[in-house]
Structures are given as structure tokens and as C-alpha cells.
Design goal:
Keywords: Membrane, Transmembrane, Transmembrane helix. Helices cover 9% and strands 41% of the residues. With 431 residues, the chain is mainly β. The strands form seven sheets. Strands 21, 23, 24, 26, 27 and 28 form a six-stranded antiparallel sheet that branches. It has a five-stranded antiparallel sheet with strand order 12-14-15-18-17, with no helix packed on it. The longest helix has 32 residues.
Amino acid sequence: MTRRHRRITGGPQPSAPAGVAVLDDDPPPRTETGRRFTLPERIRRREWREWKLTDWFAVAGVIGPLVTGLVVGGANIVQERAAASEPVCGTQTDATQPGRVGSGYVLVDPDDAAERRPAVARSCNSRDGQNRVARTGPGRYQVHLERLGIDGGTVEITPVGPAIRVCGTSGWGMAAKSADLVVHVVCSDEHGANRDSGFDLRFFQATADTGAMAYLRYEAGPEKAVLPDPNYAFNSFNTEMTVQREGTGAYRVFVQDMQQAVPGAVKVTSYGNAPRICNPMLWHPWQNPGNGKRFLLSEVNCFDTGGRPADSGFVLTYAAQPAAGPHSRVAGALLWANDPHAARYTPALDYQYNSTGRASMIRRHGPGDYVVELSGFNGDSGHTQVSAYAGAANCATSQVDEGADDTARVRVRCWLRGLSADTSFTLLYRA
């Protein structure tokens, strides 16, 4: 057993017997050259086995600030990451995995739609890439979203401008020999002829923490029931989605476990070489009486540009409180315009959401001509998607205008078989 001895002060110091450790009240021991051992050297010499309380206090004085710095620094990193998770392009991103979420939008004004390289009036890219548009022919466009290339996700398209236009997508995917995404946009007039058009396009790839939403791409075919390609489908509950064809241009979409517990809206975009009018007819909760499973059931009808039922592929998006994450809110609004003949009204509150907490209003200027007032937004950014509801009408928007009273205004025009027509519609605005 090692015995402890204290050094006697005030005279010559006796040497310690072999196997006896000396506890030193004096300054730290020195090397053979007279230099004092540093703290790391003392630790390596395992002197800590014999330290007194005062020695440990000395060590704490050195290590304490370091630990505090690490803790504070870590907190700052967490705060910086939280700040980095602010919504980008109307999408809540995960700061712990930057670049994991892909989203972007492009707005082309109708005045530039006939140009070989139409100017982009508004644009956003969640990966800080550039977005550009190329016109490949009358009513045909390629939209390049830099660094967003993936064979998956979803696309929403709405025509923009005063002319009667129907727009959709003929497909999208990774560009050849690049990391860009290419979206093909097709537009026509009310007679089905290819015509140039302004348009608002949004691409989005959801992840598990995106929030309550669902989307899918349906490819037209003779099958009565279809499971969508999982690369182009998403259900935030990670459960099954099915599309059933009920007849010519009539479809039912089942999204399992998605419940209408919060305000939500459906946007439908046609998918195919020829643009079609595809609209939601309704959406509501539904329970399968056979197995008790619960679904959000959406009915979709598609028509040719003359308003006749027609089979078509389509892309459907259901968004609730614009797909905010579980701990955040994404700036934006959605609504169902349910009273098409009213001069001015507040849309149904059960189907309306505004991230500012204010109510949206709709004014009717004339047949099929509406102004949607989105309170709390300045209108200097963002994009809008619109679908006519419960019929064969098609709708287009005008660019969001900035309001002097802190209200963004979106003009919505709707037609049926080439004539202005009152209709209900759904609208999704992401700031």
C-alpha cells in the first residue's frame, strides 16, 4: 500500500522512501531543465491520482470555459440550423440535411410567352440554381430547374393571362448529362390548337417531414384500378394510394389515412401530350365498409378543350395548410371559392387557410371574373395554382399584385366552352 507523506517546509526536504508518493503544496514540479510541467504533461504523468481539491479547482478553471464554449457553440449551431430551416420556395426544408428537399417555381408572363427564350417574371429554386425557359414551338416549352434533377416529385401548372388557354405537362425528369430537372409544358386554346401562353409552374419533391399532403401522377390506361408510380407519388402517412377509372374521363382517387382534419384543397393538372381540362369534382373523408380503412376520396373529371369528357392522365395534389412541417408554418393561403355568383364573400372557412391568421375574400367583377384578396401578403413573391371545381370550366390567373393595404390580389378568369362562365374553384398560394 502506498503511504502518503507531506513535505516539511522551512528546511531541507527529505527524500521520499521508495513507493511513497509525495503530495506537494508548492507550485507544480519542474523538469530537469527547471521548466514547470504543463497541465497536459502533469496529466500524462498521472499526477492527477494524487491531486488535492485545489488542484482540481485549477483544472476546472481551464476546462470549464472550454466546456462552456462547446455548449454555447453547440446551441448557436442548433439555432443557426433552426434559422436555416426557414421555408424556401414555399417549402419547409430540413436544415440537418440541406438540399434534401427539392422545390422551385417559375412564372412566365403572357407578353413574353412567344419569345424563343421567354423571360422569367418570378422564379425560385431551393438549391440556389437558376431557372430558365425555352420555347420549342407554339404552346410548347421546356422549363429547366437547375440542380433539381430527379425522376420523381410532382408538378403543378396553371395558365396565366387574359386569353383562353389550357395548359398541362407532357412529362418531367432528369435532364440528360446534367443534374437539372426538365419539365415539358403544353398549352392550347379552347379549340385544342397549340397556342403560346403564360404559365405558373411549380415543382416539388416531398419528404417524410413535409407535413400533411399527398400527390400522385396518373397515367391514362385501360386498367380500372391503378397504383401510381411511387417515384411520382407521396402520402405523408406512408400508406396506399389508388386511382380507379369509373368511365370516360371520370376517376376516383383514394389516399389512405389522409383525413380532412384541417383546411385543405385539391389541385389537378393534366398529364399527356395534349393538354386537357382536369378538375376536382369533390373531396371528402371516406371509410371502406369492408375493411374499415379510412381514406381521403377525391373525384376527378377530365375533358377536352371543348368540354367533352375525355380520358387523360393527370397530376393531383392535396395540400393542407400549405404542406407545413409538423413544427412550422409555411407562408401561404388556400381556399375553395364556393359561391361563384356572389358579388363579394368570404370563402367557406372549413376549406380556407391563411398563414397570417386573416380571412381571404373574393370579389366578382363579372361572369367568370374574380379577384381573390389574400390579406397579410404583400404580393412581391410567390406563385398561385388554380383549378376549376365541379365542372368542365378552365381557369387562368393574372400575376399576383401588391396591395397598398397589405393585401395581395390574384385575378382569376374562368371559361366554359370558350365563353366566360361563373364557376367554383380551388386556389393555392405560396408566398
